[in-house]
Amino acid sequence: MTTPLAATIAREYGTPAVVIDMDRVEANIARVQAQCDAAGIANRPHIKTHKSPELAKLQVAAGARGITCQKIGEAEVMAAAGLDDILISYNLLGEEKMQRLGRLLQTATVTVAADNATVISDLPKAAGLAGRPLGVVIECDTGRKRAGVETPAEAVELARLVAASPGLAFKGFMMYPAEDGWPEAQKFLDTALAGIGLDGLEAEIVSTGGSPNLKNLGRLKGATEHRPGTYIYNDRMQIAAGVASLDDCALMVYSTVVSRAGPERGILDAGSKTLTSDTGGLDGHGFILEHPEAKIARFAEEHGFLDLSKCNERPKVGDVLRIVPNHVCVVVNMVDEVVMVRGGEIVGTLPVAARGKLR
Amino acid sequence: MTTPLAATIAREYGTPAVVIDMDRVEANIARVQAQCDAAGIANRPHIKTHKSPELAKLQVAAGARGITCQKIGEAEVMAAAGLDDILISYNLLGEEKMQRLGRLLQTATVTVAADNATVISDLPKAAGLAGRPLGVVIECDTGRKRAGVETPAEAVELARLVAASPGLAFKGFMMYPAEDGWPEAQKFLDTALAGIGLDGLEAEIVSTGGSPNLKNLGRLKGATEHRPGTYIYNDRMQIAAGVASLDDCALMVYSTVVSRAGPERGILDAGSKTLTSDTGGLDGHGFILEHPEAKIARFAEEHGFLDLSKCNERPKVGDVLRIVPNHVCVVVNMVDEVVMVRGGEIVGTLPVAARGKLR
Questions:
Q1: Which residues of chain B make contact with A95, given a CB cutoff of 8 A?
Q2: Is the CB of A316 less than 8 angstroms away from the CB of B118?
């Protein structure tokens, strides 16, 4: 079965196509902004999900305090489009990055994260080049074992180092607690805040992250802002995390069934170069609206292997199906543009302007 | 430890950077072409790995018969750059694809694969638009359960259908045998050839695929050409398949250690948006030349999680490391350009012109 809209998209753009529903995008922006407002937590959405200045501006217009970027290349795209108050939630270091960070800082208010002294020793170069202060938050690990110092004592020591560095302004702490790691985060934060208080330092920013953590909004006493990314589109992982329903999923991959060589199997024209191999810990590689019992079992680069053994009704060659990806952020990063739909009608395309800005 | 070249690349381009060694690229091209020549099998390299017309031209100049593309968008980029004799090894169907295929066929000799009657019923539209014949090979499944008819009888039936379709020229059979599936492929092919012989049809092309299958080159009696892709760069999967050594790996990701928050762990600035989540069935996500005992254990989008527990010498923050990816084809597809090195010196960048041509 192919919906009329899917048939139109296939005819006008071809498949696979990454399609966003702007009604749902705007509803997601409004709902999460309202959640943040109700919790008294500023919203600083992470643009890694959509990589679009236009969508970032919608988030800011809805009330977001600023934006979060993971890479300086993303921040450059956003600043060039007029966005300001940018948190780069990542350790930046090295001559090339400092040159760019200095130039970026001339055009926008920028805060960066740091979790070690090597990074903090590089950052004054950028501030010096820009001739204005660079904000720094200390990244704290609270269970995820990604970046971030492991103890409040280290966090306090780095806060002092920032405060003592020319051109740097200590801004506070950044965390990305595991979904069940909030009590641990509270303990960490309380100790770190007490520690910097002894030096007369204050944390203007205490930033938490993650769309799955929207259900924990307001739980960390002292938190000032949250950095949700995926909520603008949502995906199977957000549904599994309990923070979105299928009707909140604003992005779908439209893909054509190109082969049905066996009775219980088929091939989609979307493989690992479209949907990516990220499983997000889930079974199968996406949810197919037209065939909920079908499983995208595995991928070749341009083939999605359909297991249809549990389907009563099975798709035929030429059917265009709508797929909710497991992890939407990595799917968006595969394409140069997405097709925009509103009220069931195509309204044009939107460039994924910061796609591929991996450095 | 950072090599002088890695330091220069980090300073001039920043990290993560995808870097190709042109000496190795040319050696790989020459070696596999010689293997094909020795086996009496034409080489039709798959450009999905490099997605660069410049590199495709090197392959043709070395003796390749033509090229293979997986997507019509890739073929369009190649044809526009002057490449000819293009096999699109994929089922194409639908109005949008037929319009584009018709235009493509006006500029280049094109053969497409088909494994079902729905696709074959669409293809005459493209041939009609172009006003010249479109070659068709029947895709046969020989164990991989991807695309391809499952029986010789179906292959013969589709060959007849192609031969009877206006504007289509039956060209032969296309296979992608599993590495241990060559006896099965031989049986399939012999039966299919006998079947079409009864109708007076001949298979001008019998095409096999896969760089890991280079070790089986010449094993299928009746094969006329092979479609290796990954051999131009190689990766951990090719080493595991026994068709390349570490010294044959022409592409590496240069990545900076940005965090060392624990004694046995670190973070690379290359995550799933650079190295991708494709494991290729291997343990860990890449081989680090400077730290062979280190394991890239998992990814966030922009974080590579280093497990350093088995390392005697451990990298420090700021070290730039060279990583051989598990699966190079999907890594190339993440970037708009690669940095070219020759004789240990940077010689410039090369656009990945057909990147993101997912349709």
A1: 10-11
A2: yes
- Name the 3-class secondary structure at B287: strand
Which residues of chain A lie closer than 8 angstroms to B211, CB-CB?
none
- Among A94, A262, A317, the residue with its CB nearest the CB of B119 is A317
- Quick check: A209 and A228 in contact, CB under 8 A? yes
- Whether the upstream peptide bond of residue B292 has omega within 30° of 0, thus cis, is no
Interchain CB distance below 8 Å, A118 and B146: no
> Do strands A345-351 and A337-342 pair parallel, antiparallel, or not at all (unpaired)?
antiparallel
Among the partner-chain residues B150, B279, B358, the one whose CB lies closest to the CB of A335 is B358
Q: Do A93 and B317 touch (CB under 8 A)?
A: yes
Q: Is residue A127 left, alpha or beta, with left meaning phi > 0 and alpha meaning psi from -120 to 50?
A: alpha
Cβ of B303 within 8 Å of Cβ of A262? The answer is: no
Q: What is the pLDDT along chain B (359 residues), one digit of tens a residue?
A: 899 999 999 999 999 999 999 999 999 999 999 999 999 999 999 999 999 999 999 999 999 999 999 999 999 999 999 999 999 999 999 999 999 999 999 999 999 999 999 999 999 999 999 999 999 999 999 889 999 999 999 999 999 999 999 999 999 999 999 888 999 999 999 999 999 999 999 999 999 999 999 999 999 999 999 999 999 999 999 999 999 999 999 999 999 999 999 999 999 999 999 999 999 999 999 999 999 999 999 999 999 999 999 999 999 999 999 999 999 999 999 999 999 999 999 999 999 999 999 99
B70, closest residue in chain A (CA to CA): A302
The closest CB to that of A91, out of B258, B273, B274, belongs to B258
pTM of the model: 0.97
CATH of domain A4-20+244-345: 2.40.37.20
Q: Tell me which architecture the domain covering A46-228 has in CATH.
A: Alpha-Beta Barrel (3.20)
Shortest alpha-carbon distance between residue A342 and chain B (Å): 22
Q: Which of B15, B91, B273 sits opposite A333 (nearest CB)?
A: B273
From A11, A115, A329, residue closest to B95, measured CB to CB:
A11
β-strand partners of B100: none
Count Cα neighbours of B78 within 13 Å in the Cβ-side half-sphere.
34
CB contact under 8 A, B334 and A333: yes
- Helices B117-130/B152-163 angle, 10° precision: 30
CB contact under 8 A, A261 and B148: yes
Taking a C-beta distance cutoff of 8 angstroms, is the pair A174, A138 a contact?
yes
Contact (CB<8Å) B274/A358: yes
**Nearest-CA residue of chain B relative to A297?**
B146
For residues A157 and A155, give the distance between their C-alpha atoms in angstroms, rounded to a whole number: 5
The CA distance from A177 to A139, in Å, is 11
The CATH code of the domain at B23-232 is 3.20.20.10
In this prediction the ipTM stands at 0.97
Domain residue ranges in chain A: 4-20+244-345, 46-228
Q: Which CATH architecture has domain B4-20+244-351?
A: Beta Barrel (2.40)
CB-CB under 8 Å, A94 with B256? yes
